[in-house]
Each structure stands twice: as C-alpha cells, then as structure tokens.
C-alpha cells in the first residue's frame, strides 16, 4: 500500500494532514465505519478522496446537491483523480457506468435518490466498491436542519454491502442529530470523530436590536475591512446596501432574486475588495473562499445555532482577528415561534429545540463561545476572553426570565 503522506503530497500537493483528517483516513483505511463531524472548511472531502485514490476500487460518494457534486468533480479532476458524477444532468451516463464497471474510477458521485434505486444496487454488485462516503450526513436525520427522506433509503443499500466501509461526514450536528446519524447509518458509537469547532480569532458579540441601521453603521465605522451583513429579506438587502452606499463605503447586495450575472459580478467584486461590505441573504457564502473577511453581522436572528456558526465562520479564515456581531429582536423570536406552528409533528421537537438553543445563546450572561462549543459537543473552558460577555460582563440580567419571555408560546 502506498504511503498516505506521500499520496497526500503527490496527489493533492499538501504537506500535512489537518486536524483530525489523519485519524479519519486511518479508520477508513482500516475498514472501520466512521462518522466525521468537522466544521466547514476543515477538509472533509480529503477524508474520502485520499482513500479513494489509495484503495483499489471506487469510492461511491452520496451527495445531496448536483451543483456541489459538479464542484467536487471539477476539483478532483483538476488534481488528476479519476472521477465522475452520475446524475440526471449528465449526458455521459453510459460511459460513466462502463468506466465504473471497468474499475476506471476512483470516485463516483451520486444523489441519494439514485442510490436507493434497485438497478443501482445491481450496478454496484457488478463493480468494485472500495468505500461509501455519505456527505452532508445530517440529511439522514429528522433532527437535523436539512432532512432529506431519500437519505433514509441509503441504509438498506449500505447493508447489502456489509464489508464495504462507510464514512459519513457532516459539519453541522448537535448531539441529538449526531446520535441519530450513527443509528440511521449503522455506525458504532466509537466510530464518531469530532473535530475542534473553536475559531479563537473570531470575537462574538450579540446585542438587542434598537436601531439596526445605526447599529450597523457604528459597526462599519469600527471595521474598515471587508465584511458581510446578513439580512432576512431580499428587499432588506437592497435597502440597507443603499444606506451604506450613501456613506461612501463600497457595498454590494446579494440575494437569490438577482439576475445570475449581477450576483456573480457582485460576488467577484466582494472577493477582490479589501474594504467592501456585502449585504446579503443567507443565499450568500456557500463555497466562497475569501480568507480576509473581517466581520460578519447578523441584522436579525439566524435560523439555528448551526446556521449562526456556519455564517459567522466565514469571518477570519486567515486567522487574523475578526468580529461576529448579531443584532436580534423579540419580534424575531415571535416570528420564529409562529413558524413552529407550520412545522409538521415529526420535525417539531427538533425545531423547538433549535429555537430554545438560539434563545439560550442570545440571552446568556456567560461566555458565548463556551455555549457554542458545548452545543457542538465539546468541553470548553468556562470563559474565552474574546466575546462580549467575557470582555464586559453584563450586569443584573436574569437570563432565565428573559428566555421564558421570548420562548414561551
Ligand atoms: P469541507 O468539506 O470540510 O468544508 P473541503 O473538503 O471543501 O472542506 O476543504 C476545504 C479546503 O481545505 C479546500 O480548499 C481543500 O483543498 C483544503 N484542504 C483540505 N485538506 C487540506 C490539507 N491537509 N492541507 C491543506 N489544505 C487542505
Ligand atoms: Mg464538503
């Protein structure tokens, strides 16, 4: 077997494994079923791509979005990995199937609905499958924030190939979701590997909303570098962007309702700029690689703690100091509670728990980072020294009282 470090270097051009990558890859190479929980950007793909190259046979990757698959395909092909996607959007399916059967693929990306079809199982039995990688594995759990019923159909498929190792990967799993993924995908509890979620250079601050425009303007004055302001509505992004433009600061807006060319141009301008503000809905940010984002502001409550962590995590990827500031209002909670009324019974407990956790985050008089990290299953020190509550402890707040006020239905 080739030396893994040599392969890491020769195939990917990396000098070393990062964080828990080595641990995950070693388990996969040993054939052990594994769930890797690693934050976005930690390098989850490598955990199956490297074994895919090292092992004989093909690694079948289940991925929820065709766009994601095609991004991955481009990246893998660029470094010389033999990869293909098998989706309704591909017109070379016949060729791909032939390559798969001939053992001519390291990686084959498929969507969960294909994976659950009977003829796909037959195809797998006529090829050599080295590994099943289940990306975005939280989709298998009703506790997760992005449940996909098709993911539930994976288990019988995996179980019909009991000797093929399986690796589930996710960035966003609270303890409940995580336990559920293990059960749903048949992974033993000792197969769980959790990477460090701490982003020590990000300073967290959370304030009640008074005058959002004024509060954002104050923040922008303190933060000259590039930053993102998340706004809840499409119209809201354009309105706030116009207000910021009036102050002379370079600014763009981004939301799913803009023409694709405008969206792409705004994104490119932001990525290239050292001072631009991007006012955006949460449609902005996935797959954007800008290391020097100095602040992420939320003009309103994010959807969940996972979403908050993911969105704020776009700040300070270069390791230099960065700020994450959220401005929330009681009406955000009122709206969120209202939405709970529209959720079906199965999802209700999960959604309710998510909202309660968010309530805890905004109301805590203690360390924000400690609360976040505990939510992700870590055991952090009680105070981080780099969040608003550690830097200036709040006086006389009865958090329980406040939480009750905002959360009681
Ligand atoms: P995730 O899926 O966890 O969000 P990706 O797999 O997309 O992360 O990887 C994020 C980035 O990190 C990619 O640009 C990838 O090339 C890079 N990367 C992954 N592993 C390493 C490593 N060991 N050394 C350096 N860069 C790495
Ligand atoms: Mg990924």
Low-confidence stretches: none
Estimate the global geometry from the Cα principal axes. globular
Order of strands side by side in the largest beta sheet? 3-4-2-5-6-1-7
Query: Termini distance?
Result: 59 Å
Proportion of helical residues: 40-55%
Q: Could you tell me the radius of gyration in angstroms?
A: 22 Å
Number of separate helices: 18
- What is the makeup of the main sheet? 7 strands, parallel
SS class = alpha/beta
Present as ligands are: adenosine-5'-diphosphate, magnesium ion
* Overall pLDDT: 92
Percent of sequence in beta strands? 15-25%
Oligomer: single chain
- Care to count the β-strands? 13
Catalytic activity: Couples ATP hydrolysis with the unwinding of duplex DNA by translocating in the 3'-5' direction
GO molecular function: 3'-5' DNA helicase activity; ATP binding; DNA binding; four-way junction helicase activity; hydrolase activity; metal ion binding
EC number: 5.6.2.4
Family: Belongs to the helicase family. RecQ subfamily.
Your description of this structure?
The chain is of the alpha/beta class. It contains 18 helices and 13 strands. The strands form 2 sheets. The protein has a 7-stranded parallel beta sheet, sandwiched between helices. A 6-stranded parallel beta sheet has the order 8-13-12-9-11-10, sandwiched between helices. Helix 12 links the parallel strand 10 and strand 11. The longest helix is centred in the C-terminal third of the chain and has 16 residues. The radius of gyration is 22 Å and the shape is globular. It binds adenosine-5'-diphosphate (ADP) and magnesium ion. Magnesium ion binds next to helix 3.
């Amino acid at each position: 077997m080739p030396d893994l470090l040599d392969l890491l270097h020769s195939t990917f051009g990396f000098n070393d494994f990062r964080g828990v990558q080595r641990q995950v890859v070693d388990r996969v190479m040993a054939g052990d079923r594994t769930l890797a929980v690693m934050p976005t950007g930690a390098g989850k793909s490598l955990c199956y791509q490297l074994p895919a190259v090292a092992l004989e046979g093909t690694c079948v990757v289940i991925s929820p979005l065709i766009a994601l698959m095609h991004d991955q395909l481009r990246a893998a092909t660029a470094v010389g990995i033999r990869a293909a996607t098998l989706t309704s959007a591909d017109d070379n399916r016949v060729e791909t199937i032939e390559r798969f059967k001939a053992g001519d693929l390291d990686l084959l990306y498929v969507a969960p609905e294909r994976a659950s079809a009977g003829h796909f199982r037959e195809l797998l039995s006529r090829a050599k499958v080295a590994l099943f990688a289940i990306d975005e594995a939280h989709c298998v759990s009703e506790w997760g924030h992005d449940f996909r019923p098709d993911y539930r159909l994976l288990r019988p498929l995996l179980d019909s190939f009991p000797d093929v190792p399986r690796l589930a990967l996710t960035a966003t799993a609270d303890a409940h979701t995580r336990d559920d993924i293990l059960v749903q995908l048949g992974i033993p509890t000792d197969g769980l590997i959790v990477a460090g979620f701490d982003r020590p250079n990000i300073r967290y601050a959370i304030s009640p909303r008074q005058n959002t425009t004024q509060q954002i303007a104050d923040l922008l004055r303190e933060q000259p570098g590039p930053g993102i302001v998340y706004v809840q509505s499409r119209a809201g992004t354009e309105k706030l962007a116009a207000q910021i433009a009036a102050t002379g600061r370079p600014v763009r807006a981004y939301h799913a309702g803009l023409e694709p060319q405008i969206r792409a141009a705004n994104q490119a301008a932001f990525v290239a700029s050292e001072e631009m503000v991007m006012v955006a809905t949460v449609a902005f940010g996935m797959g954007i690689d800008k290391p020097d984002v100095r602040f992420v502001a939320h003009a309103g409550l994010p959807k969940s703690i996972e979403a908050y962590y993911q969105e704020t995590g776009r700040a300070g990827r270069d390791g230099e100091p960065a700020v994450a500031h959220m401005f929330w209002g009681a009406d955000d909670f009122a709206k969120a509670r209202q939405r709970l009324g529209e959720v079906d019974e199965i999802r209700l407990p999960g959604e309710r728990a998510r909202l309660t956790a968010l309530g805890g985050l905004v109301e805590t008089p203690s360390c924000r980072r400690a609360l976040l990290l505990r939510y992700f299953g870590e055991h952090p020190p009680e105070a981080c020294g780099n969040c608003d509550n550690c830097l200036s402890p709040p006086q006389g707040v009865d958090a329980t009282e406040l939480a009750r006020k905002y959360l009681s239905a």
